Amino acid sequence: MTPIEQYLAPATLDEAVGILQQGEVTILAGGTDLMPQSKAGRLAIKRTLMNIRRIPELKGIALDNDAIRIGALTTITEILNDPLVKEYLPVLADACDHFASDQIRNAGTLGGNIGNASPAGDTLVPLIVLDAEVELASKPNGSVTTRRLPLAEFFTGPGRTKRAANELLTAVRIPLPKAGHVARFFKFGTRPALDISAISIGIAGVIDNGVISNARVAFGAVAPTPIRAARTEEALEGRRLDEATIEAVASAARDEVNPIDDVRATAWYRKELIHNMTKRILDHVAQA
Amino acid sequence: MNVAEKTHFIEADTLIGKRIQKKDAPEKAAGKTRYIQDMVLPGQLHAKILRSSRVHARIVSIDTSAAKALPGVHVVLTAADVPDQQPIGVARDHLPLKGERVRSLRDEIAAVAADSEEIAEAALKLIRVEYEDLPIISDPQDALKPGAPLIHPEPHGADGKHLHLKPNAPIAFAGKPDNIAMQFDYTHGDLAQAEAESDVVFEDTFKLHYVTHCCMGVSGIIAEFDASGNLLMYSNTQVPFLHKREFAEYLHMDPSRIRIIQPPIGGGFGSKLDIYPFEVICIFLARAAQRPVKMVFSREEEFLASPTRQPVLLTLRSGCKKDGTLTFRQVHTLHDNGAYTSWGATTPFVMMQTFSSLYRVPACDYHTTAVYTNNPYAGSFRGYGNLQATFAIEQHMDMLAEAIQMDPLEFRLKNAQDAGEVTGQGMKFKSCGFKECLTTAAERSDYQAKHRDNIVHRGDAGPVKRGIGIASMLHVGGGAKIYPSDGCGTILKLDDFANVTLITGASEIGQGSETVLSQLVCEELGLPISAVTVVNNDTAITPWDVGVHASRTTFIAGNSAIGAAKKAKAKILAAAAKKHGCDETALDLRGGFVIKADTGEPVVELARLMRNLHFSDKAELVMTTFYYEPPSVHQDKGFKGDVSAAYAWATQVVEVEVDTDTGIVKMTKVTGAHDVGRVLNRLGIEGQIEGGVVMGQGYALTENLIVDNGVTRNPNFRDYKLVTAPEIPEMDISFIESMDGEGPQGAKGVGEAPSICIAAAAANAIYNATGVRIFALPFTPEAVYRALHGKAEKPQLQAWKVTTT
Ligand SMILES: Cc1cc2nc3c(=O)[nH]c(=O)nc-3n(C[C@H](O)[C@H](O)[C@H](O)COP(=O)(O)OP(=O)(O)OC[C@H]3O[C@@H](n4cnc5c(N)ncnc54)[C@H](O)[C@@H]3O)c2cc1C
């Protein structure tokens, strides 16, 4: 009944990108998106199903010069418990702490969350405000090559990315945050656990003498992809977090997003949440 | 040293009120319970149903030829293949397989039995159905408009041969000239006078939404005919004896040739109280295939094709005097029946009790119209209309209290029922702990002080507002006399080792009946719980019982089990007295021995006595039977009469935090006081109440089956939000033991009670926190946020004023 003709489980990166090169491959990591989606008929698995879970190069979190490199196969649980993440990227740990349930976190991977390219993917918004880059590997003419792309530019639509069919997402690189760096994540679902974001907000920046620079703002679940919000960033950049700025940023955020109505929320309510919660996050930062 | 000091005396002990582990808990916790999902019979086929892809349409043609040709397919059935099918359901308005018209998206058009589920699924995809769309009614108010499209105009025959009516053939379902499925009218007192005496009158419309049971065990059945044509069904039904009879009618069979076995049931909550098309269809498939056929729903199918709680639009008018005396209630409800009539339409039976009798009210006038629409159809669900009624009535109680500037608790106490009262509807409250429920829940939650404080703090800075709300309920607690008998039979047998087999008609659906019934028997016979084996799942073995509904099992089956145990005890003591030359009234049973009642001195080990009786020249076995029929009465045509042998009461106080920036309502604490008659199994009753509170919480805050123009938009657990563990509030539950005179050891039914008040109390708590009253459920964040910003539409019910005169 299923169209899958072969199932492969390569043990090295080299092998895996070699298989991808042959075309018609669906990549399986934790399967927590892939399996429910294919069962519901929303996604058709291609001729070859390739399980990448045996590839050691895709695992682990390490310092790599002035960046933290997180392998695509790292599970949400591993990110949550990692000391480097806790120390340097607490906002990512916070997002993982609002992610699904223990069972799903144990199976679901960072690469899968990115590869699935849902506008509501919970690691995407914090990674975007952390200036993360994705690392893609392929083997176009006999040898493995890699390229990097800013995550903020990676998504092209729901379930769609700039990854070429012959590429494997191998890792995410996040520059080590500078001194004074502050980042916050907020996810809104109707219940505290096991919910898909109706909206999510990431805000980051460097605070020096009360003034914000390098402002980054991203929103999830308000557009076909997670988005960086340029006009909201502008309202924040170079400002002090006083009441007027906070209100201006929150209003800019509400005006900048253009969400839709669905079973989870109406567009109007999403915009209200974006405003109110952007304000709440900034109020908290200002008070801290 | 005298003899007495050497003898081991057996002290009096009781199991009543103890915390006793459920008998089925180890199996369930270990994952060893074999549900219907786990069963595989030799030669079994797997069945799937093709459902409509249109909400309302005429079926032009059905082509099953490609499906029939698929290898591995054994049977494909459509309405044309079963000309003897009968309309089923509460109003006999529902043909299992639809041949002419589909009326909702759940409608069954064809069914396949195949070697595997996958093949059956593939076969469904090969069936071609041509439709001609008909206008859709999805708003129940539209169903009553003049010129509205009709949903059930055509009659169905009952001659066992034809789908269409033959001239002069008997009619099973006459067809409907309008979209009215059922109507209920009740009245007591002089409404006009009572209204004239009122100082304050409120009229509001409340809107109650769709939710569904979400049983862990989805619907399923295995049907099999033996070579003599006897039908064996493995079924999750809650009412095996009623269904046996009903199936016999639908299948033109002698009921004695139908046997129903219930494998362990993964939850019922009312959902398994009616016969559904899938069951009849599975039997048709088994008949055609001459093989066992198994049909189990997927989770999505469970959402789409099992019944919902009754959605209701309800207009309530209530009045009171300045001194806090209630004067009248007038109620008009519009029930959205969905495309077919199931038990949902009959929830007025329970709703009117709440309006007429929860509080003393001199005049009550109640009317329901249930209408056909093209929506999913509503069935019975724990609480049976009472959540809906209580939601309205308890909000009005707060509103009236506020209008006359009376404390909401005082107002309720002033109008609350007492033991000994006979209500306008003829209910007699022999035991009634209502006022104690009110005062206990209020005191333990510090309700009055918090209620006042929260109002003072509404205007404080900060987005989070605290609120507290109170609501109470009345529900049948001693069965409900709906059917000719509301009884239950027991067969009790003691073996040579003084182990008991308790054969009871009462089904276990997870509520803990096996355990509590064992406990009641052991209490009579002085045996440990482990001495009892319960047999309760086979119509060929167990005596008759009306079924698991109306919170009745502990009360009715409990009294039945006690009756059988008392008979056994009398027989045992008589035999022991004879053998040991003493007076049987001086003997008792305790700790596995016959003892002297006054001293506890053992006379003979019970097991030994049993063997002596058995292996003697005049062999005797201890086997008894008992049938308990509660002393309740059927209601008269005006719905008056003392329909239950006892009534349960409860008050629940709900505390919330409302985040006004998001609309999120966090339920922080529930303080409950339940008049349960008496606590039998403390562990069981705590579980029952905690689970019920969470079910009520889901109804109030998160659960919402979104039905949009006849289409269910969220048939999955991703978008249908059940309450998860972190949201469950702190609970403080008190038991009010009113020691009901008729109840088993004084107990009353409690199964439905805990879910009933939560939404009503939550509504009052949100008002207490924010000053905003919300008349529609559920209180999802967006709905609350809208209400706080004046953007919630107030529900309206125009229809009733047009249709009733
Ligand atoms: C009950 C439940 C709750 C959930 N809750 C949340 C939640 O709260 N927040 C959230 O964000 N998500 C949630 N999800 C979605 C899902 O768990 C996550 O997106 C998860 O991170 C996916 O990872 P995976 O390894 O399981 O991906 P898979 O399902 O294996 O793959 C997902 C997609 O990415 C592709 N892919 C995977 N790895 C790679 C790679 N290395 N290179 C290229 N492509 C790749 C796959 O081909 C597939 O298209 C939930 C899912 C379920 C079932």
Automatic annotation (TrEMBL), chain A:
Keywords, comma-separated and alphabetical: FAD, Flavoprotein, Oxidoreductase
Pfam families recorded? CO_deh_flav_C, FAD_binding_5
Organism of origin is: Aromatoleum anaerobium
The segment(s) forming the FAD-binding PCMH-type domain are 1-179
- Protein name, per record: Xanthine dehydrogenase family protein subunit M
UniProtKB/TrEMBL annotation, chain B:
- The source's domain of life comes to Bacteria
Xref: Pfam families = Ald_Xan_dh_C, MoCoBD_1, MoCoBD_2
Q: Which residues form the Aldehyde oxidase/xanthine dehydrogenase a/b hammerhead domain?
A: 30-135
Q: Which InterPro entries has this protein been placed in?
A: Ald_Oxase/Xan_DH_a/b (IPR000674), Ald_Oxase/Xan_DH_a/b_sf (IPR036856), Ald_Oxase/xanthine_DH-like (IPR016208), AldOxase/xan_DH_MoCoBD1 (IPR008274), AldOxase/xan_DH_MoCoBD2 (IPR046867), AldOxase/xan_DH_Mopterin-bd_sf (IPR037165)
Q: By what name is this protein known?
A: Molybdopterin-dependent oxidoreductase
